[in-house]
Amino acid sequence: MLKLVLTYSLSSFFFGLFGVSWDAIDRKIDREYPQIPFITSDSLQQKLQESAPQLVIIDVREAEEFAVSHLETALNIQTGDGVAEQIDAKDTPIVVYCSVGYRSAGVAARLQELGYSNVSNLRHSIFNWAERGYPLANKLGSTDKIHPFNTAWGSLVDSDLHAYEPE
């Protein structure tokens, strides 16, 4: 867990210093997690409209981020081990996401290590989902706001979508 925290902190620090781009994030994810399959926001939205009943969506972001908004049916679980405690069937279709896809790729990798065979990472995660105008929720109901995680990551999404508290 300490390794994950340090990795996220260092990544945020360096991206903050040197700028951030989707290309840089995609390269980092592809380099560190080449075995993780992706699903696009469009494909996931289509599956949700088709009422895929067994599909489990996991938001791996921190509780503060989740409180601002999340995909409507998402569970907020930050680690692969935490997911494994909640989902026994290793063939369950699982989609993980975070802000941009990096943290969720790490969780997806851990789930694969634990024997889960049907795990996908949402490409560009909640940022892309929100930019496409797909439904988001929080405890107050529907919202179009997302937590930008930090200034560096927040530069990847329209600032009109930023919120640090539920609205």
Summarize the structure in words.
The protein is α/β, with parallel strands linked by helices. The chain has a single domain, classed as Rhodanese-like domain (Oxidized Rhodanese, domain 1). The protein contains eight helices and seven strands; from the N terminus they run ααβαβαβαβαβαββα. The protein has helices at residues 2-18, 22-32, 41-49, 63-68, 80-86, 102-113, 125-131, 151-154; strands at 38-39, 56-59, 75-76, 94-97, 119-122, 136-138, 141-143. It has a five-stranded parallel β-sheet with strand order 1-5-4-2-3. Helix 6 (102-113) links the parallel strand 4 (94-97) and strand 5 (119-122). Helix 5 (80-86) packs across helix 6 (102-113). The longest helix is centred in the first third of the chain and has 17 residues, at 2-18. The protein is globular and about 40 Å long. The model is unreliable at 1-18 (pLDDT under 50).
Oligomer: single chain
One letter per element, helices H and strands E, the order comes to: HHEHEHEHEHEHEEH
Mean pLDDT: 90
The outline comes out as: globular
Q: Architecture, according to CATH?
A: 3-Layer(aba) Sandwich
Tally of contiguous helical segments: 8
The percent range for strand residues is 5-15%
| Strand-pairing-aware structural class | alpha/beta
What is the CATH topology? Answer: Oxidized Rhodanese, domain 1
Strand arrangement, major sheet: 1-5-4-2-3
Tally of strands: 7
Give the CATH level 1 class: Alpha Beta
Helical content (DSSP H or I, runs of 4+): 40-55%
| Unreliably modeled segments | 1-18
**Intertermini distance:** 31 Å
What is Rg?
Answer: 15 Å
How would a crystallographer describe the biggest sheet?
Answer: 5 strands, parallel
Q: How many separate domains make up the residues?
A: 1
